[in-house]
Amino acid sequence: MEFTAQMIAGLIGGTIVGDPEAKVNNFAKIEEGKPGCISFLYDEKYERYLYETESSVVLVNQNIEPKQAVKATLIKVSDARAAVAKLLQIYESMKPKREGISELAFIDPSAKIGEKCYIGPFVAIAEGVEIGEGCVLHPHVTIGRNAKVGANTEIYSNAVIYHDCIVGNRCVLHAGCVIGADGFGFQPTENGYEKIPQIGIAIIEDDVEIGANTCVDRAVMGATIVHSGVKIDNLVQIGHNDEIGSHTVMSAQVGIAGSTKVGEWCMFGGQVGIADHATIANRVMAGAQAGIPNSVKKEGAAIQGTPAIEGRNFWKSSAIFKNLPDMWADMNQMKKEIKMLKEQLELAKKEE
Fold first, then answer.
1. What is the DSSP string of 236-256?
2. Is the pLDDT of residue 3 over 80?
3. Is the per-residue pLDDT at 352 higher than 80?
4. 240 included as an active-site residue
5. Is there a single domain that holds both residue 210 and residue 338?
6. What is the model's pLDDT at position 199?
7. What is the DSSP letter of 217?
8. Taking residues 282-297, what's their average pLDDT?
9. Are the C-beta atoms of residues 75 and 62 closer than 8 Å to each other?
10. Residue 265: exposed, middle, or buried by beta-carbon count in 10 A (0-12, 13-18, 19+)?
């Protein structure tokens, strides 16, 4: 697919500086640009690449005024990052979607498959499954009995949806993710640990994206729920009976223990850990490796550290922490000096 700068500017509401007929057919980072590519620049500290790039078109923020000659045609927009995201979405939507069912797929006769779906080789679809229209199931996907998948959802290779679980419309499940495996439930006895049956389900609502090798466990009873618009990175663990609020995002290796309720629009950095039965308010931001042992009740709180505390206090504490050895030595020295002063005072009193 090939586009002119004029066509692109029309799609994103930009202003052209240069040749409106400049043609592009691919994307590239500005420092790796080549003729026929479109790049973007949103931060002035990388402005030097604007004069070096070989890209034919560059999206820039309106406030950027070149100080040297620029070979590329510029398209000025209010937010270059948002504009390139929109272009990528348009580009992706224009790709032809695959349709058809491979002869090497297994589909139980009782399953219902919507129109315009693609089901790749070695996909296994069990009895009672319902697949909405326009879905794409890549090779080796497994859908358990009576599970439901909404329309226009894409599931990548080796992902598994366990029995009775529900995945909504327009979701993306990346390779190896598992929806509805048993939660970690065991009862200690004198002879070891007895398994507690996990008889609930997992529900993934609309417009959710779940990264590779991420697990959303089924509930003991009831449902583990990931609400609409949630975006989850690779290698994340969502425990049984958790509820994740709409539009919350999680980076890699986040772990949330069972029966925890997370609010809407929260942001968790990599390796954040949350204890069981906690409640996290809306719009809480937890920095990387934050350990959250209890509920966070303040909406919009920004927390960091283990145990997690208010972000500014954490950074102040971190600055002090590296000086603790010297502070400890100083304190011991002061204790010795205070002891000597006390002894001298006592001696002076006796001499009086």
1. -EE-TT-EE-TT-EE-TT-EE
2. yes
3. no
4. yes
5. no
6. 97
7. P
8. 96
9. no
10. middle
pLDDT of residue 222: 96
- Using pLDDT thresholds of 50, 70 and 90, give the confidence band for residue 153: very high
Rounded mean pLDDT of 32-46? 90
Using pLDDT thresholds of 50, 70 and 90, give the confidence band for residue 295.
very high
Q: Are residues 82 and 117 in the same domain?
A: no
In this structure, the answer to whether residues 252 and 344 fall within a common structural domain is no
The pLDDT of residue 93: 82
Q: Which of 138, 227, 240, 247 is catalytic?
A: 240
Kind and range of the H or E element at 336?
Answer: helix 324-351
Q: Hey, how many other C-beta atoms are within 10 angstroms of the C-beta on 287?
A: 19
Rounded Cα distance, 215 and 44, in Å: 40
Domains in the chain, number: 3
Query: What pLDDT does 344 receive?
Result: 87
Structure tokens at 347: 């001696």
- Torsion sign, CA atoms 35, 38, 43, 44: positive
CATH number of the structural domain spanning residue 63: 3.40.1390.10
- CA 104, CA 259: separation in Å to the nearest integer? 40
8 Å CB contact between 212 and 177: yes
Nearest in space to 166 (alpha carbons), one of 200, 119, 194, 138: 200
